[in-house]
């Protein structure tokens, strides 16, 4: 199965390719499952207690993953920001373990969307999940991006990888 990789931002903490402190995650559209996915392993730089990923990092990954689900259409004018997010931590998320995050759209409107996300262990166990309400990014926010960031999203075509 081919994967369609979504574009990344320049400075975003979760995906920013120019952010030296970021997670540098990459998301792929999985049209068979109607979801976006990312795979990653976090080291102890992202822990709260030894061997446990910090809950704020988990929330960040869930926020970005679930929010990217509205981009399954490859319409990057659909970029949205989170208005409200509820996270449920079901189990400890370990460091130094291959993890997967998935995001799905529950409801998709013109200016708002409801989405959900999960973090999964290699055996499929869900360690954390979220539901969120998103809304369109206000133009005043987009106006602050600068030309390089705006171009990154406006002129990017998703990349097919095998």
Walk me through the topology.
Blueprint: E1 3-5, E2 28-30, E3 35-40, H1 55-68, E4 80-89, E5 99-108, E6 112-120, E7 126-136, H2 139-142, H3 147-154, E8 159-161
Antiparallel strand pairs: 1-2, 1-8, 2-3, 3-5, 4-7, 5-6, 6-7
How would you describe this structure to a colleague?
This protein has a single domain, classed as Roll (Thiol Ester Dehydrase, Chain A), CATH 3.10.129. The protein is globular, with a radius of gyration of 15 Å. The chain has an eight-stranded antiparallel β-sheet with strand order 4-7-6-5-3-2-1-8, with helices on one face. It has helices spanning 55-68, 139-142, 147-154; strands spanning 3-5, 28-30, 35-40, 80-89, 99-108, 112-120, 126-136, 159-161. The protein starts with a strand and ends with a strand. The chain is an alpha+beta fold and 162 residues long. The longest helix is centred in the middle third of the chain and has 14 residues, at 55-68. The model has no long low-confidence stretch (mean pLDDT 90). Helix content is 16%, strand content 34%.
Main features:
162 residues, alpha+beta, eight-stranded antiparallel sheet, Thiol Ester Dehydrase, Chain A, 3 helices, 16% helix, 8 strands, globular
For the record, give the distance between the C-alpha atoms at the N and C termini, rounded to a whole number.
7 Å
Q: How is the CATH topology named? A: Thiol Ester Dehydrase, Chain A
Question: Over all CA atoms, what is the radius of gyration?
Answer: 15 Å
What is the number of helices? 3
Domain count: 1
Shape: globular
Largest sheet: 8 strands, antiparallel
CATH architecture: Roll
Structural class: alpha+beta
Q: Helix and strand string, N-terminal first?
A: EEEHEEEEHHE
Model regions low in confidence, pLDDT < 50 over at least 5 residues: none
Strand content: 25-35%
Using the coordinates above, name the CATH class. Alpha Beta
| Widest beta sheet: strand line-up | 4-7-6-5-3-2-1-8
The named CATH superfamily: Hotdog Thioesterase
How helical, in percent, are the residues?
Answer: 10-25%
Total beta strands: 8
- How confident is the prediction overall: mean pLDDT? 90
């Amino acid at each position: 199965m081919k994967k369609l990789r979504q574009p990344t931002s320049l400075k975003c903490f979760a995906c920013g390719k120019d952010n030296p402190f970021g997670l540098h995650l990459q998301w792929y559209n999985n049209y068979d499952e109607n979801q976006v996915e990312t795979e990653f392993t976090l080291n102890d730089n992202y822990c709260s207690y030894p061997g446990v990923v910090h809950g704020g990092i988990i929330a960040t990954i869930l926020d970005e993953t679930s929010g990217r689900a509205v981009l399954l259409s490859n319409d990057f004018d659909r970029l949205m920001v989170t208005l409200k997010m509820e996270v449920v931590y079901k189990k400890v998320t370990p460091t130094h373990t291959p993890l997967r995050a998935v995001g799905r759209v529950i409801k998709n409107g013109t200016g708002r969307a409801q989405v959900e996300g999960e973090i999964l262990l290699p055996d499929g166990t869900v360690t954390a999940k979220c539901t969120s309400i998103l809304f369109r990014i206000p133009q005043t926010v987009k106006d602050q991006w600068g030309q390089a960031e705006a171009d990154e999203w406006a002129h990017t075509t998703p990349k097919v990888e095998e």
